[in-house]
């Protein structure tokens, strides 16, 4: 359609007006120059379900989006934090190479290995490695977590008539909202366990909330009230879980 209508055009699907952008330059305008304006776009039904009603940086209102961007930029995505987390990336990549090397001559699932490596890197940055003397979190397995993430991605990309005809959203004709809510419940179980352990560690001021070199992981920064003297960067538990869901994807 871009060859016919150009790099930007609009179309109406059901009762919803959509704007399509098909060039790198225009994409930069949308996500960088006019990012605050386009942050107010209406999320899909499944996006609202997985983000606790639009409480993360991808699907949120303009003011909340601005605060989240400030928080992520200063904490999780800062150059300093990314450099400090380099050891996580090196460790997981080396572990992956060792695993692949040990299976020479056999059939291996590269997709599964690559995904597990990526998840391990991100989760280490989010809530840290298992510390010596700290019991490993058994609330989920890698396979279970991978299946949940894949299902969420599938539901987010699936066409849903409720998005095109909002009057039908309450009926959930295709069952997409119910399916996404089920996946959110699965993630809730995982995140609740991790957050509970981290809160206990912070309250006891033990090493469980801090990396071995004294650096806090992203979750500890979000949960520690001393890190958020500014009320605009203070988050409740649902908002924290919504952020964790975003970082996982």
List the helices and strands and how they pair.
Blueprint: H1 2-5, E1 8-13, E2 16-21, H2 24-33, H3 35-38, H4 45-50, H5 62-74, H6 79-84, H7 86-102, H8 110-127, H9 142-157, H10 161-164, H11 176-204, H12 218-223, H13 237-248
Antiparallel strand pairs: 1-2
Helix pairs in contact: 7-8, 9-11
State the gist of this model:
Pfam families: p450 (PF00067). One of its GO terms (molecular function) is iron ion binding. The chain contains 13 helices and two strands.
Helicity level? 55-70%
Going by CATH, the architecture would be: Orthogonal Bundle
Supply the number of structural domains: 1
Order of helices and strands: HEEHHHHHHHHHHHH
CATH class: Mainly Alpha
**What is the radius of gyration?**
20 Å
pLDDT < 50 stretches: 130-135, 206-212
Q: What is the name of the CATH topology?
A: Cytochrome p450
Tell me the number of helical segments per DSSP (H or I, 4 or more residues long): 13
- Termini distance? 29 Å
Beta-strand content estimate: under 5%
Form type? globular
Largest sheet descriptor: 2 strands, antiparallel
Secondary structure category: mainly alpha
Query: How many E strands?
Result: 2
Q: For this structure, what is the CATH homologous superfamily? A: Cytochrome P450
* Average pLDDT, all residues: 79
Widest β-sheet, arrangement of strands: 1-2
GO molecular function: heme binding; iron ion binding; monooxygenase activity; oxidoreductase activity, acting on paired donors, with incorporation or reduction of molecular oxygen
Pfam family, one: p450
InterPro entries: Cyt_P450, Cyt_P450_sf
Protein name: Cytochrome P450
């Amino acid at each position: 359609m871009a060859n016919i209508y150009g790099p930007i055009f609009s179309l109406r699907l059901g009762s919803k007006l959509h704007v399509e952008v098909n060039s790198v330059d225009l994409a930069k305008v949308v996500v960088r120059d006019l990012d605050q304006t386009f942050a107010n776009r209406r999320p899909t039904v499944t996006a609202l379900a997985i983000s606790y009603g639009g409480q993360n940086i991808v699907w949120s209102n303009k003011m909340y989006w601005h605060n989240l961007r400030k928080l992520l930029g200063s904490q999780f995505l800062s150059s300093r934090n990314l450099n400090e987390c380099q050891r996580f990336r090196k460790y997981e990549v080396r572990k992956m190479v060792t695993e692949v090397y040990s299976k020479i001559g056999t059939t291996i699932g590269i997709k599964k290995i690559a995904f597990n490596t990526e998840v391990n890197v991100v989760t280490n940055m989010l809530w840290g490695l298992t510390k010596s003397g700290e019991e490993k979190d058994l609330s989920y397995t890698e396979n279970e977590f991978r299946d949940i993430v894949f299902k969420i991605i599938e539901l987010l990309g699936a066409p849903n008539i409720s998005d095109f005809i909002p009057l039908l959203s309450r009926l959930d004709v295709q069952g997409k909202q119910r399916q996404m809510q089920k996946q959110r419940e699965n993630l809730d179980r995982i995140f609740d366990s991790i957050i509970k352990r981290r809160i206990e560690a912070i309250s006891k001021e033990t090493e469980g909330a801090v990396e071995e070199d004294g650096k806090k992981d992203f979750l500890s920064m979000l949960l520690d009230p001393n890190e958020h003297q500014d009320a605009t960067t203070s988050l409740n538990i649902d908002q924290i879980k919504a952020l964790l869901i975003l970082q996982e994807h």
